[in-house]
Design a protein that fits this description.
By secondary structure, the chain is mostly helical. It has six helices and no strands.
Length: 122
């Protein structure tokens, strides 16, 4: 996978110091590590193990029927997670809320969910 295209070159260099884009670089490294056994999914239907990137705001937008705002992302994320029966006690930052929303999206789209089996994710 190529370097994160939107990141300035200086931000791509970990020797840069305060690398604002560090989270992007870590995600890119994870995709590269997973590639041999879980290639990046590029088409449907899914025929085997794979990985894909999720976007918490897009998940919130979809689950709220197109009514989501960045200004209310914490409250809207909490609301969706609470409706799904997820324990909110450990979701102490927006990063954890975002991660939980991504996990919820996987649960809602998984074949085991469609068969009525929900595996714990959080």
């Amino acid at each position: 996978m190529p370097p994160a295209a939107g990141a300035p070159m200086a931000a791509r260099d970990p020797a840069n110091g305060g690398c604002y884009y560090g989270w992007m670089l870590q995600g890119e490294a994870l995709f590269q590590d997973l590639e041999p056994s879980h290639p990046l999914l590029t088409a449907l239907p899914i025929t085997g193990p794979g990985c894909f990137e999720t976007f918490p705001h897009a998940i919130t937008w979809d689950l709220r029927g197109g009514h989501a705002t960045a200004a209310n992302k914490r409250a809207q994320g909490y609301e969706l997670l609470e409706q799904a029966g997820i324990d909110l006690a450990s979701l102490t930052s927006i990063d954890r809320i975002d991660a939980a929303l991504c996990c919820l999206a996987v649960l809602l789209s998984s074949p085991s969910r469609r068969r009525g089996k929900i595996l714990p994710c959080l």
